[in-house]
Amino acid sequence: MATASFSGLQFSMSRSCIPSSQKIADASAVVLGGKSKIGSWNKLASACNVASVQPFQRGFTSSSIKSVKGVTKATSESSAESAVSGLPINLKGKRAFIAGVADDNGYGWAIAKSLAAAGAEILVGTWVPALNIFESSLRRGKFDGSRILPDGSMMEIAKVYPLDAVFDNPDEVPEDIKTNKRYAGSSKWTVQEVAESVKEDFGSIDILVHSLANGPEVTKPLLETSRNGYLAAISASSYSYVSLLKHFLPILNPGGSSISLTYIASERIIPGYGGGMSSAKAALESDTRVLAFEAGRKRKIRVNTISAGPLRSRAAKAIGFIDMMIDYSSANAPLQKELSAEEVGNAAAFLASPLASAITGTVLYVDNGLNAMGVGVDSPIFKDLDIPKDQH
């Protein structure tokens, strides 16, 4: 699925990495850092929305689709029965498919968790080579600490599907991928087949999340990026979203929501974020507007993207300068704090909820306001200005 996500700096397989059309898994995104802890669901740091550029170290033998039984229970019965004040985000009775979840360390996981906390049933798509280890970790309880929801219950994943979003249908899969041992044992993992499987298993969904990206040459300056590397970044990080929405649209219930992850490099220069990834994010944002019109007119589906700030994650670390980007954001953003994956997840839950019923075709910035800045106030040039600084 070559799909992962480096958000924050968006890379794919956030734990997804695919140096060619073969590596892109989420994760995310590449997706995110700091792990959430029991009783304190704050530090699920996600990172750049680009797939991890380094492939998994061990070879996996993908297993066939396995179901992690259990329906997501976001609230306990007692709390569900009690009166809720204010404007709660209520997604009970809704079903979400999140493409790009390969571990508990990325944007995809954080979004799944927030949607589950709001009551949604969770389905996930995991990059094929990462499927076996992801399902094994779930079974062995490795993610139990990260599965704890605010009310103390555990997030459940109704089903895990193998997915490689770089391929639309079986006819497009090259022979070397079909015979690759990392894909052995798994079937029906192209976008078209996954959409058909979800329809067969559940009938329909209400929320579609694209948390995938991959830039095999992300560490190269644009002037040194090859044509193949550039096109691979576009294919895995932007066209994969077009394909997902195209194939899932027929089973998305009217009034539903579709969300992707982008990064400020789409409109600002971020040295070091290369390989065509900035172009891929710009394309993703442009596509978001067009898809909002087309999906809105066809099935009343809202289409938005979240531009997340830099987050610490395994995928982001592969780029090499995530710590510097986080420090820069802390020094220059209006809100001087480190962004957490939970904040990105909560923004996604809002966009998927009835509270955002009139919001579509939008880029929502979740970056502590860094996007609004025109200069870096930590520059020596501004040393004599009386610029307020967070004292906490």
Automatic annotation (TrEMBL):
SUPFAM superfamilies: NAD(P)-binding Rossmann-fold domains. It catalyses: a 2,3-saturated acyl-[ACP] + NAD(+) = a (2E)-enoyl-[ACP] + NADH + H(+). GO terms for molecular function: enoyl-[acyl-carrier-protein] reductase (NADH) activity. One of its GO terms (cellular component) is chloroplast. Its EC number is 1.3.1.9. Pfam families: adh_short_C2. It is found in: Plastid, Chloroplast. NCBIfam families: PRK06300.1. Homotetramer. This is Enoyl-[acyl-carrier-protein] reductase [NADH], chloroplastic. It comes from Vigna radiata var. radiata. The gene is LOC106762957.
